Amino acid sequence: xxxxxxxxxxxxxxxxxxxxxxxxxxxxxxxxxxxxxxxxxxxxxxxxxxxxxxxxxxxxxxxxxxxxxxxxxxxxxxxxxxxxxxxxxxxxxxxxxxxxxxxxxxxxxxxxxxxxxxxxxxxxxxxxxxxxxxxxxxxxxxxxxxxxxxxxxxxxxxxxxxxxxxxxxxxxxxxxxxxxxxxxxxxxxxxxxxxxxxxxxxxxxxxxxxxxxxxxxxxxxxxxxxxxxxxxxxxxxxxxxxxxxxxxxxxxxxxxxxxxxxxxxxxxxxxxxxxxxxxxxxxxxxxxxxxxxxxxxxxxxxxxxxxxxxxxxxxxxxxxxxxxxxxxxxxxxxxxxxxxxxxxxxxxxxxxxxxxxxxxxxxxxxxxxxxxxxxxxxxxxxxxxxxxxxxxxxxxxxxxxxxxxxxxxxxxxxxxxxxxxxxxxxxxxxxxxxxxxxxxxxxxxxxxxxxxxxxxxxxxxxxxxxxxxxxxxxxxxxxxxxxxxxxxxxxxxxxxxxxxxxxxxxxxxx
Amino acid sequence: xxxxxxxxxxxxxxxxxxxxxxxxxxxxxxxxxxxxxxxxxxxxxxxxxxxxxxxxxxxxxxxxxxxxxxxxxxxxxxxxxxxxxxxxxxxxxxxxxxxxxxxxxxxxxxxxxxxxxxxxxxxxxxxxxxxxxxxxxxxxxxxxxxxxxxxxxxxxxxxxxxxxxxxxxxxxxxxxxxxxxxxxxxxxxxxxxxxxxxxxxxxxxxxxxxxxxxxxxxxxxxxxxxxxxxxxxxxxxxxxxxxxxxxxxxxxxxxxxxxxxxxxxxxxxxxxxxxxxxxxxxxxxxxxxxxxxxxxxxxxxxxxxxxxxxxxxxxxxxxxxxxxxx
Lengths: 510, 326
Description:
The structure holds two protein chains of two kinds. By secondary structure, chain A is of the alpha+beta class. Chain A folds into two domains: 8-252 and 480-506, Periplasmic binding protein-like II (D-Maltodextrin-Binding Protein, domain 2, 3-Layer(aba) Sandwich); 279-476, Roll (Dipeptide-binding Protein, domain 3). Chain A contains 14 helices and 18 strands. Chain A has helices spanning 2-15, 19-23, 61-66, 117-129, 162-167, 236-244, 260-264, 294-303, 306-314, 343-352, 368-382, 397-405, 437-448, 451-467, and strands at residues 40-45, 75-77, 83-85, 88-93, 99-104, 142-149, 152-157, 194-200, 204-209, 227-232, 250-251, 269-284, 358-365, 386-393, 411-416, 471-484, 487-488, 505-506. In chain A, the strands form five sheets. An eight-stranded mixed sheet of chain A has the order 8-9-10-1-11-16-12-15. A four-stranded antiparallel sheet of chain A has the order 4-5-7-6, with helices on one face. Chain B is mainly alpha-helical. Helix content of chain B is 77%, strand content 0%. Chain B has 13 helices and no strands. In chain B, helix 2 (13-41) runs antiparallel to helix 13 (291-319), helix 8 crosses helix 9 (186-220) and helix 10 (223-230) crosses helix 11. The radius of gyration of chain B is 24 Å and the shape is globular. At the A-B interface, helix 1, helix 2, helix 6 and helix 12 of A face helix 3, helix 6, helix 8, helix 11 and helix 12 of B.
């Protein structure tokens, strides 16, 4: 029966219209993957590294995955903000605080090369010569590096600098091997306990133990997990679901605060809440009228109820701060009470400045915390006669262009995550448009001052910024880690640039 | 010779297909210009985005030169198209890797998803559509028909969220997302593919059910089917033997359109299920202003849709000889 055969074949051909195309999908499986098991940890994160080269690509994603885990630094920062030993077992500082002698421990790069003082020289000079990201300026203060012995490197600074040693705990302090920098974007070579085994774009990065990390001749405590899979979820709900359904073991940072209670109520999980370096800042364009008037900036700061804002925008999770200083910085002091919510005072100040009513634009990054904060701000400011036009901008691309580069804005909201970014207020070209001789002088003095004065000077900077209402520090972004109960060694605070895997282990193992 | 054939004035099927292929080529060329133009007017500077928040203006300018963004647009376009024609999609600004192999890798994931979604849609639509048509006056037929109406109204991402909540989070039967390549672990691959394919196929299946139903209803009213029934054939054998080929023509048309919809729907579904397909690559690349990658992806998607339309046209001529000459 010809008719029947053709009828069937017609439907079959319709069915398989897509199938032959689908066969092409066989190519999508070339990357080696590692199986799950008790020695494997799967961590869910949000921002995926586009490549592995943090010397030329900026952003938090690459150091989050690689720093301390794959690349090590001479000195590290611990979860309380203290500087501790890394590849340098100890270090001496000269009396004039310009000469640092680092005494190095035995270590081996994942390509088998030993780590020596000449690698320190190579790495520091490479920051000055070949890096392109702007953080490289942290190394400008270094005059020269001397190789005193195989395990003794001497760094000579042009002038004393308190910020330099702290900067050495960040990615610019990472130690490289001259034979390991040929393809940094794809093949990182470090001395850390892990090595990049494979990556699947849009999905995951797999780290496995670096065989060279601990040898019988040079034993070092190994991390608890043999394999760590860093899985990336751009969507907050997908990230939560992955933990709830057992796809991952840890959420490195919850990005939807509403979802925290469901984890707290579930006895399979543990929730740790701490601080980050991420100040969520309502930026005032200090260079543009009417915000160049300190009375207007103060008025706006009095008019916003930050406690209510934190509650509404981020579920009350986070910490109120009053300046550009997270509590883990040594010069932190609580300035969050400097501008108590006082709409009457705000109105008075605005009248004094000659503004019965005002219209300001608020160009915010199109990110959840910024958009929900903007809505609260608009409603609070309306009560004191300020009309706010909220304009969410595509982040990072459009925000970077309009607000950051062109400074074409009245007010903006974005989270500033870089450590010690209070120094940006010393740069009059920064998008704050804040130009204060006193702050610039204090920052310079602080950096070269003896340690105790350093702290005192930095406090003065923080207070000056608060007094001038140079910006409105809405809240400090919380670090919320959720993990299965058996995962041990996690820290509540996120202080360094790294999601440090080195101390993690499964309960019951050592 | 039918009336339609006489009006069309004749011509061989090969010529018809060649003409349609010509249209395909011109469409692709136009599409490439449109895609490029869109990227050129997109706000945001790729060099600035790649360099991050603290880059100096000099560095941004140098990077723009490295990327070739300082050259005239026409030169940039010709360079790009020239490369694409030889299979070279350029090197990404952001990942610093060749875009071509990445595209192929991601395309594989998306095609599996779309293929599986289509399969689910057909598995739902063909049987239920036929049942709904044959029993259109009985309660069971009406119920199927009403259920398909509800299905049409549910967006794929909502179906996805509900399915994840039930089958991954509550019951724990299937993973909530993620992708395992089939070559690595076929079981894990299949488990990971089920929920995305069902989310995508459910809605399309509901839409398709209604077309299958009306196509079958139309066919049932034809004289040749009444004759078949009069000869004593029962409803289903009569339909299978004489009706399905005729009903297939309108269904294939819709299928072509739906395949395009599926490709677009896959972008959203990939996001919900964290699948490393073309859709998530597209979103990431747009965010990072990785313009060369975006151009490449959009071009591949456009060519895909045009190709499907072309294949549907060709398929008509196979299914229905009368259309060969029009």
